[in-house]
Request: fold
Amino acid sequence: MFGFGRKNTGPVKEWKVDDSKAVVSKTFDQPPTSIEHTPEYEDIEKEEHEEIYNNVLKHFKETDLYPVKEGDCPKSDWKPLNKYEKLWLSKQCLLRYLRACNWKQEEAIKRIIGSIAWRREFGIGGGEWDKITPESVEVENETGKHLVFGFDDEKRPCLHLYNGKRNTKASDRQIQFLIFMLERTIDFMPQGQDKLCLCVDFKKYPESCTEDPKVPPVSLGKSILYILQYHYPERLGRALFINMPTLVNIFLKLCWPFVDPYTKQKCKFDEPFDQFIKPEQLAYNYGGDVNFDYMHDEYWDDFVAKAEKKRAKMMENFEKKGGEIGTSEWDIRDGI
Reply:
């Protein structure tokens, strides 16, 4: 199958309903992070990298204005950072970009500035730059096609994507919704963890999908890949893909050349989710213990409220530590 995994010839696992054995959930009752070990952020190991990091930190502390959109943006339109952007520019954020740029100082600075501009233009910069709201994308999840639920065995929060539950046609709003859910997944990262686990199931759910689920255009796939690779470096810890039909394999073959080698190493195809996620963190139909039944009216508001509470706590911690660029995410996520 074009090198993306083997064809799944076994029986498709259906939902199992046995309330005596499963933890029943319809709302956003995120399972506890009961993984035994505590992850630690990757730190600076080489002396020369310490100097490069300090130079990058100094640049952003001493720079007052930044572009408000990608590409050609007149300097007269540039704006200062708000407190949400300063929180985003944590120590670990700078290090993620530096590692992605192979510790090339100027390249990392340019890329971070590009991400600040993109986040503002896209509508997720925080404060006055927030345009993508829960209300503006809620319709995209009426069938529960994207869910933040559970943690993998490395304590990464899991973002589940169900292509077979698509309820809208391909559009910019679909990309906005995916990024909205990616940002919420980041909200649920526990202290010490800065990566997520992506779980993608291509099984058809005719009872949920309002149209025949089709493979998205290659142009849309390339746009999403660009956003994830350029503006979310070092965020993917693991990507799991199951129930992949032939069309999806063809689609991945077309998009695969645009995926960087480091990301490719993190992808697993047609390997059961329960090999990487403990039962208490996983839905029953994937071999877990949680009998999760998505009820949009019960789940969505609760999910949004919990994510907003975590972001408020992070801002509180950030301001207590002085509200400076380069604050450690260990301190920012204290008590999250």
Observations:
- The first strand starts at residue 23 and ends at 25.
- Residues 1-24 have pLDDT under 50 and may be disordered.
- The longest helix spans residues 296-320.
- The domain at 136-294 is CATH 3.40.525.10 (Phosphatidylinositol Transfer Protein Sec14p).
